[in-house]
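Could you help me review a protein record that somebody else here produced? This is what I was given.
***
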Amino acid sequence: MGDMANSSIEFYPKPQQQREAPHAGGFGCTLAELRSLMELRGAEALQKVQEAYGDVGGLCRRLKTSPTEGLADNATDLEKRRQIYGQNFIPPKQPKSFLQLVWEALQDVTLIILEVAAIVSLGLSFYAPPGEESDACGNVAAGAEDEGEAEAGWIEGAAILLSVICVVLVTAFNDWSKEKQFRGLQSRIEQEQKFTVIRNGQLLQVPVAALVVGDIAQVKYGDLLPADGVLIQGNDLKIDESSLTGESDHVRKSVDKDPMLLSGTHVMEGSGRMVVTAVGVNSQTGIIFTLLGAGGEEEEKKDKKAKKQDGAVAMEMQPLKSAEGGEMEEREKKKANVPKKEKSVLQGKLTKLAVQIGKAGLVMSAITVIILVLYFVIETFVIDGRVWLAECTPVYVQYFVKFFIIGVTVLVVAVPEGLPLAVTISLAYSVKKMMKDNNLVRHLDACETMGNATAICSDKTGTLTTNRMTVVQSYLGDTHYKEVPAPSALNPKILDLLVHAISINSAYTTKILPPEKEGALPRQVGNKTECALLGFVLDLKRDFQPVREQIPEDKLYKVYTFNSVRKSMSTVIRVADGGFRLFSKGASEILLKKCSNILNSDGELRSFRPRDRDEMVKKIIEPMACDGLRTICIAYRDFSTGQEPDWDNENEVVADLTCITVVGIEDPVRPEVPEAIRKCQRAGITVRMVTGDNINTARAIAAKCGIIQPGEDFLCLEGKEFNRRIRNEKGEIEQERLDKVWPKLRVLARSSPTDKHTLVKGIIDSMTGEQRQVVAVTGDGTNDGPALKKADVGFAMGIAGTDVAKEASDIILTDDNFTSIVKAVMWGRNVYDSISKFLQFQLTVNVVAVIVAFTGACITQDSPLKAVQMLWVNLIMDTFASLALATEPPTESLLLRKPYGRDKPLISRTMMKNILGHAVYQLTIIFTLLFVGELFFDIDSGRNAPLHSPPSEHYTIIFNTFVMMQLFNEINARKIHGERNVFDGIFSNPIFCTIVLGTFGIQIIIVQFGGKPFSCSPLSTEQWLWCLFVGFGELVWGQVIATIPTSQLKCLKEAGHGPGKDEMTDDELAEGEEEIDHAERELRRGQILWFRGLNRIQTQIRVVKAFRSSLYEGLEKPDSKASVHNFMTTPEFLINDYTHNIPLIDDTDVDENEERLRAPPPPSPNKNNNAIDSGIYLATTASKSATSSRPGSPLHSVETSL
């Protein structure tokens, strides 16, 4: 395995290694040494550290840093370290260049058809048929006598090309700016990520990118480690290394067993300090990313090669293509082109609609072309009885090309290519503006999904409350104090015990600092509950700092850190006489069960029986909880000198305690929350509170917030009761049972992370009620990860949230405030409405333009709207309108309607009425102008003009009127729910005004000076006024339409439904486990490369072993076998990861675990790779049909040959 460890260094450019070998800049370790050290794990790593450096202290000395004081904050020293050991920065993948984006925009089918048409048209225009036989070809060439006119034939083709170029540039520019915005957003997220290090003995928060090798970093529960390091001191530290190893069990880290901490892994429990040994591209995550860079380019070549090689190898190559290699092959083939995350509600509806419109357009354009060609052929060869002469062929072909171009224009107008543009612009605009409303959007579509939200499951602490906790009541020495007692009123012995219990048994990173400004409140740093307790110590006129200085963190004998299962935290210290003392604090009802004594008013012990406990719960705890206070019990226990307990047996250690006090901590409701919740309820969104708190506290807070109103029919449940109601006799969750509970459930108290996930999943999967639910969830803790991932929209707290929660979320609330969620709902609905507005406008134009082009072509053999004019109309209605209508600011009125839900169509009846109503008006006007316009304006008729004839005023008037009607209709389109005042709030959107006026200005230029390329001839003032008058008629007509009640029009169909229930394919339903965004997908690929090598070695060793012992045991039974594919079956959070270490309320998961661990892993020959030792077997349940168990997979073939 040693060679494996070094092999990854070979990926690196050689010069770097040669450069560092001679000088390590005065430091005692080279980069290569540290890198090879970080490749090791567990005992091997310890051995290496001892051989090379003596101990971790020796390593620190070599790196010229102090384990307690950290680095001197000296700029030159830090810079030198960066030069030698690299920066903590992984260069991002190259963004697509503008040219690549242009190339991608050119792939659009309609544009390709147009380009072909334009090029053919250009080519033919340069080919002039010999002039003498023009008579023989009929009146085809008539009107082209004027030389100048004949030469202008190329203009049409050139103009089409020009407009294609315009469309492509606009699209590419939009994509480019979107990409740029997104990168800006990402880098903002990255810059905001800070990490705690010790420099000059001071705790500092530095940006992650500023970490250097040799820094001493503080790690604590919930951190995402930003660099590799070696543990110097740790308390009960457990790390989730699944992102690197695929191993879902949490790995225990300690200085004497496994001190290696790796970047990209999550701290799930405990705390500690580490010395940073590798940063950036040299850290474990960095190495994987670098492999990715190497892997990305090689990937295509490999794919090609793989096809030629035999099946076994090809099979191993497979995972690179799929996003995570966890699927079975068949599903991979099916899903090769299906994006990973299930399309958002809106995207699903839009895709469907666009396809329907596209098909209709295609049919129309085909019919147009066929009719034109037949008409021409019949008229020329049948009626006029001409013969097809060879020399006339080019002339006829020119005609056919003209027909083809007309057909294509119909298609171009019919296909709403502005839709994706509108969605992108609208989302990008909203995301930018949402930043101002304290919503940092990580996934674009989350913003629109939020508008459809029907339920919000919110945390209590910090979201609904201020998260500024204070102790307001306490029960000390047999007395219940309703406010903080005077220190003199307390027994000094009790007071002393209390101060020690609070100061020592809390994270040393939690502190209360003096206020920044005069008169402000003291600053609370760290865990807020602990801050409340420390504040209580200060209120009792004592100080916690001296106690901590007397017993520094490294003197703590053992720490059981807080986690969601224990709901308590305990710390053991050595006392002077050689015995031990344990301090414990935690949720009162849990800790009081472990107490057998309590301190009375003299500070003496008196026994505390279950009967006393019940009385205390009734008299003290419940009244506190009903005031909305969170109750915390503080207790201690002494161990005499002789009896050192087995510290790993936690249940025996933390038992037989003596209760010191029970305190009631108040976390006041944020003043703005009740109003925000009222808005949600008015908007048809149900708010549910999911909290770990006691049920009485939760109920009191819920009533203060307005989540529950007196007299309503609602449920408040505890986690235990909730589980009892939704599980059957076997302990499995049943959807029918859940469906009986969730509609009335408003408060879920004492809930575990699993309960939260179960509730969210249950609501999302529920099919009861008239529409499916769309659920938003807020979370801040590491344990909220699964629920945040499962929810349609996950909100993480920006201030209190752990990195793990932020990683799993879609939107980060930068101010942790519930009102920001309401803002997100408003923006989401606004996005949805903007797109509906755009559709209403776009489809009107589409219907009219297609019908005009079609009928015009069939009756007059020439479309009244020329190709170039159509493209201009397309530009107005697609690009500009999407800009104008997609940037409408949201208004409070959006919160007065119910959410649309997953199944509501995009185009409502009202919108359908508007679209058809306006289409009727526009068609009437245009056909009137087309057939009797020349009489009305007293001008030459433009109908039946020969090829290449100069543009007529007649057709120019039609074109101009058409555009004017669109401009005025754009104002109508601003309202989609049948409102009368279409000008409402028009000036609050400057973009809209600019675009309408700008379009008008350009239209004047096109008509007056466009000439031949635009097929326009200048118009007089009177004609202009008529055009404007007709256009203005649109607004009047809009009022007429608004008068017709929609309910009378039963015949109108709605369009653009979401995918129906029956159409939800198995793929989509199965995608729950694989919602993986791009960054993760990239990381996954690297992991596969990484594991593939390890896996091959593993297989070889096993085969050798199997031969050597000639027994079958070397390979397990086929069903528990896992292949390289299974490495990837643990997405960031599969809820199964939790089942090992969260004892559920009823221990139903035991059998599942046994099942999973059925096959005992064979003793692995390499200690270096825990992933393969045990990770693989755990992974099998996630995809039961692991690929390898199918005959024909490489491992299976080895097994059969044995």
